[in-house]
Fold this protein.
Amino acid sequence: MSKINELKVSNTFCAELPADPIEGSARRQVENACFSYVAPTSPSHPSLVHVSNEMLKELEITDANSNDFLEIVTGKQQFPDFKSYAMCYGGHQFGNWAGQLGDGRAINIAEVEVNDKPWVLQLKGAGQTPYSRGADGLAVLRSSIREYLCSEAMYHLGVPTTRALSIALSGDKVMRDVLYNGNPAEEKGAIVCRVAPSFIRFGNFEIFASRQDDKTLKELVDYTIRHFYSHLGEPSKETYLDFFKEVMLSTKKLMLDWQRVGFVHGVMNTDNLSILGLTIDYGPYGWLEDYDPDWTPNTTDAENRRYRYGNQPSIGLWNLTRLANALFPLIEEAKPLESILKEYQENFREEYLTMMLSKIGVFKLKNGDKNLISDLQILLKKTEVDMTLFFRNVAEFDCDHPVDFFVQITKDSYLSNEEIGENRLAWEQWLINYAERLSLEELTKEERVKSMNSINPKYVLRNYMAQLAIDAAEKGDYSVLNELYELLKNPYDEQPASQKWFSKRPNWANNKIGCSMLSCSS
Ligand code: AMP
Ligand code: MG
């Protein structure tokens, strides 16, 4: 247990990897270096909005009420014995190589070790860096609330993610054109202190491969293996392949988790894929409400829908292929890399089916199960049924009266009773098939319900819920934010007092900005 400024510094990234010789935030191409030293811009009147108790516990910090804490997590005060820095990376954005990107508005303010675990504290929105390109390095309250609430919610859902220690107002105004339609307005500036064992992304490796800088590439790969995949042993061609295989497995697992809970990231560019398989960079993400695999919350991607819900697993593979290309210079053999990529493709299908079956309480794969799931998905889409409500409610399915469940489906659909009535027979047939299939399982109903409820969350951060927290917070009222933060700590539990959050998206939210559509403006 310690005060924030007494945490044990373990400075590995800067100590072991090459630094940009120039300091400060002047924009530049940074070559042969993994990072640039840069200090946060001091905010004028910082004030805390919320602090994560869980993260405080994890880091064993005791002084969240102190002035030092406030100043460190907003960049007003430097962390003692640590020189802050921004990381250099590139990335493929929407399918195209975009060159150098880097931490344009993220600054790593400390690397610490708590109970032998490494943690990087990173401020998002604390001012310009050499990688800010044409932008201001800042973040606004609305996008910061979305990142803060969702990253902690994901953690409690059991989905690997970066975490958040705190969210604060900077006291400064930030100009943003929310709809990108030529109407910029001032918004409240905010800073999130994000935390993760490492923020290294696929793009950190790609930038060196793109510049044929094999030396720095090798240094970064060796560093990553030494600190985060040390069980693989000393660096060698074989170890590099094992490393790639582990990244493949953790990315595959992440895609399965996202599909399971209905999370749509929205901007799966390679600079937004973590080398540790964490969900990272919460921007225009969203939660699937009516079950539509073609849905994306990101208005910037509305035309091609590259990052739509149903496409996330393929994009995971596409991004891994970019990483394989980046690692190739160290391995110099395409075949073994290709076979790891093939493994992703082959195993994903079966693991996905197993995961979807478990959502309906079927835990032993049998012939015909594939159709049971694909028929269900077609019906859910056609009849616009709410994903979270359906999978949670179907735990109460009564095998002796299968067609009765159609009443519940009608309630959980966004269609009118007449509209959904057209699919009544198809649904009834599916429900009868489902009852038959469940009779082949060995679990009692009680056991089945218990397992299903640990897989299908009752509460997720629906897009309109985050927006309600934002609307109140803009007026200085943090009660909704607090309420949602507490609710989402136990997403799989029944919380009778919070039943109102277990319901369909209200009509007012159907086409409201922030609720079903989001731009990248943040
Ligand atoms: P994203 O896809 O939103 O994660 O961001 C892509 C790139 O743009 C990253 O290099 C970010 O650091 C950078 N970026 C996004 N917003 C800003 C901003 N307001 N100021 C500076 N850089 C930014
Ligand atoms: Mg990003």
User: Anything to note?
Assistant: The longest helix spans residues 334-359.
